[in-house]
Amino acid sequence: MAPISSIEHFRVPPRWLLVKITDSEGSVGWGEATLEGHTEAIEGTLRGFTTRFTGLEASNIEHIWQLAWRQSFYRGGPVFMSALAGIDIALWDLNARKLGVPVWQLLGGAVRERVRVYAWIGGDRPGDVEVQARGRWEQGFRAVKMNATEDVGWLDSPSVLEASVERLKTVKRLGMDGAVDFHGRLHKPMAKQLARLLEPYGPLFIEEPLLSEHPEGVKQVSELTTCPIALGERLYSRWDVKRFLEDRSVDVLQPDISHCGGISEIKRIAAMAEAYDVAIAPHCPLGPVALAACLQIGICTPNHQIQEMSLGIHYNVEAGDFDINSYVKNPEVFDVTDGYVNALTGPGLGIEINEELVREVSKNAIPWPLGGFVGKDGGFREW
Question: Among 361, 348, 335, 350, which Cα is nearest to 10's?
């Protein structure tokens, strides 16, 4: 028996929250509990989990997950599930390291040798997509994702949608697949139009055509287009996902491993989705621990089809010197070749964290601020 002896968390730039769990034998695991713009809320929840979980047997991952869920009464949602994700990922890492195997080996073994990946281009106000897409090609990517639009009014001029089509056409001309992220910025009158305009040019998928808080609207849009519909970053558990599977309104689920309760829950969500012939493509514009955890899922999950990577994403670039390779001692495990990352074969998550750097930069790291858009009329718009 090796109970949990300590749970620590570290706020690090550009906007990540890492979790370290140590057991009584000195074994260590790392997790990521990042929730963009809500760092302090996660930290408070983690402090509560630390009190509850210290002294529990570290190998009983499911017991700890169920304890968090069943004995919390007010549960679910982004803050609770992101904090739980950090704990869960760290426990999987710790236990797999003790056994000297990758996490995917504990989850049933490999169903593929490599994971298809994509990267971001264009930024929050998309532009220069041709130059950026060519740069991604040189990095080894064969698929990219971009925001569909800048901020858009509830019922805006149809002309604001024209640039979205041109950006997709540009990417396709370069021989790359292009996913288009509506980001929940559009409301139904505009989303219906844009889905129809993009359809002839074959997007890899259109993401969050509407916010997931509008399931009836998502279903309506799905019935108006042949474009694959993707969403899920703002769904935090299998119970949140259930409605969209039953509605048959989503083709690609995008749970975020750091938002939906970690490795344990995303594996359950993936199994549910497979029963409805729905692929998963986990959301992950986050840090190296979250990415490594997603790649573990990708190797052992049959309906995992493509993985988001935050290498050089605009959020990282805007923050300065820190990217997904900054905190790992073996960044080569994230190398992209012809659109794929090879299976991580090292123990645990397959990455080695530079703990000295993490501790140093966390001393002065500030929470990542929330963003937002304001329309020409002074009213708030979806970001």
Answer: 361
Q: Which of 183, 187, 259, 304 is catalytic?
A: 183
> Could you state, in order of their start, the residue ranges of all structural domains in the chain?
105-348
Q: How many other CB atoms sit within 10 Å of the CB of residue 342? A: 16
Residue 181, SS3 per DSSP: strand
Q: What is the pLDDT of residue 318?
A: 72
Beta bridge partners of 145: 120, 179
Q: How far apart are the first and last CA of the chain?
A: 48
* Class of the domain covering 105-348: alpha beta
pTM of the model: 0.96
Q: Is the pLDDT of residue 62 over 80?
A: yes
| CB burial string 115-132: b at 16+ within 10 A, e below | bbbbbbbbbeebeebeeb
CA–chain centroid gap for 70, Å, is 25
Strand, helix or coil for residue 264: helix
Per-residue pLDDT band for 319 (boundaries 50, 70, 90) equals low
Active-site option among 9, 259, 283, 314: 283
Asked whether 351 and 344 are in contact (CB, 8 A), the reply is yes
What is the C-alpha separation between 143 and 251, in angstroms, rounded? 18
Reported as a single tens digit per residue, the pLDDT across 153-180 is 888 888 889 889 999 999 999 999 999 9
Query: Could you give the CA distance from residue 271 to residue 111 in angstroms, rounded to a whole number?
Result: 14
Of 57-66, 78-87, 154-163, the range with the lowest mean pLDDT is: 154-163
Which has the closest alpha carbon to 116: 204, 227, 219, 43?
204
Beta bridge partners of 20: 8, 30
DSSP 55-111: TSBTT-HHHHHHHHHHT-SS--HHHHHHHHHHHHHHHHHHHHHHHTSBHHHHTT--S
Q: Is 183 a catalytic residue?
A: yes
CA angle 16-52-36, nearest 5°? 20
Query: How many CA atoms lie less than 13 Å away from 57 in the CB half-sphere?
Result: 6
> Which tokens hold the place of 107?
């989850």
pLDDT, tens digit (0-9, with 9 covering 90-100), for 4-38: 999 999 999 999 999 999 999 999 999 999 999 99
For the question of residue 187 being annotated catalytic, the response is no
Q: Which residues pair with 337 in a beta bridge?
A: 340
H or E element in which residue 117 lies: strand 114-120
